[in-house]
Amino acid sequence: MPRLRPTKCDDSVGSDGVSEKELFAVLCAYRIFLPYANITISTRESEKFRNGVVGVAASKISAGVSVGVGEHSEDEKKGDGQFIISDCRDVEQIYTDMKALGLAPVMSNHIYV
User: Does the keyword Nuclease apply (predicted)?
Assistant: First the structure.
């Protein structure tokens, strides 16, 4: 559930974009109308927001991801970061934090559709 933000090459999305409050309202609406839908919250969102939404509307949160252009390939030249990561916790820290919130984290490396 990413929200649009300005990029290096395109600033058509203003800095006043979608607030966390508005994003939370949209996520809750999705959860009400699509109760079995998978809702993943990206590392682009803040730690505080992700910790709050995971107990209410999110079914998954990402952790330990690489979002830079070309970062998944050893052979390609590394590009600039495509997205700014706001939640820089590693996988182990997110796991610990989810348990502290009373959740039972389930780890997955691959998701097949």
Answer: no
d(CA 88, CA 74): 22
Choose among 48, 30, 53: nearest CA to 88.
48
What is the rounded average pLDDT of the residues 30-38?
93
What's the DSSP call for residue 78? P
Token pair 């999110």 is found at 58
Residue type, 23: L
Judge contact between 56 and 86, C-beta under 8 A: no
Check residue 67 and give left, alpha or beta (phi > 0: left; psi -120 to 50: alpha). alpha
The CA distance from 62 to 40, in Å, is: 7
Q: Which two tokens stand for residue 1?
A: 């559930």
User: What tokens were used for 106?
Assistant: 């389930």
For the stretch 60-70, pLDDT in tens is 888 877 666 55
Catalogue the E-assigned strands of 1-113.
Answer: 40-41, 60-61
Q: Which amino acid is at 62?
A: S
pTM score above 0.85: no
